Prior knowledge:
Number of strands: 4
Amino acid sequence: MRLSAVKIPTALLWTMVAALGVTVLGEILAPNFSATLDAALIALAAAASITALTRQLPLQNVLLAAAITALIGGIAHGLSARTSIPFGPFIFNENAGPKLFDCIPWTVPLLWIVAIFNSRGVARLGLRPWRKTKNYGWWLIGLTAVLAVVFDLALEPVAAHVKHFWLWQPTKIHVTWHGASPLNFLGWAFVSLLILAFITPSLIKKQPGNSRAPDFMPFGLWLGAMTLFAASSATAGLWPAVIVDAVLAGVATVFAIRGAKW
């Protein structure tokens, strides 16, 4: 069988989503229960993100995009842990789990897959009214990068102060978001754009047919992540983070639903 003909069964996707939902519930009820639960949640989210995309594209295209995303995102975090570029100075803690090449936790590349794939899905929903315009591709890349930064904005308080995955080091920039300097978010924007520059050709249908119904699965995964981050921040009393998460998620939700109804 040609690899391009392989499609992941829909039942498998929903099984992953169900398992993901149960794991999320465990995270909310017992946020400090187990590092294994954290790792399982990230792995399931990445698997569901990849599987959802195979409903629209050939499997090898999706796997190639996932590999590139994980590689570039992992290398960027590894460089920053060693040189402070591009995200700023930080140290990975033991809570983040076993490290690849004694450099980065194995879950970090998977986080990039979750962030990029689902941010792109939300952007596609919101931009549906303009999908036939000349600059649609550029708008899609730009908006995906913005939503990936929003994902990280919600992630940082949880990763640094609730889960203690990493520890930010002081810099000359005194304005921070729960320890992360603005350099971190600029770095996320840059790396997201770099990843999208490489993976976009793999994510374009070479033989487009009739317009498909809007796909809400990436939006559900992205919004689920934002909800989990807000809930985890609330358990730690980080209410400014909760408010910011709610506002940004609300804006993205209105934008995505409005575009999907077009």
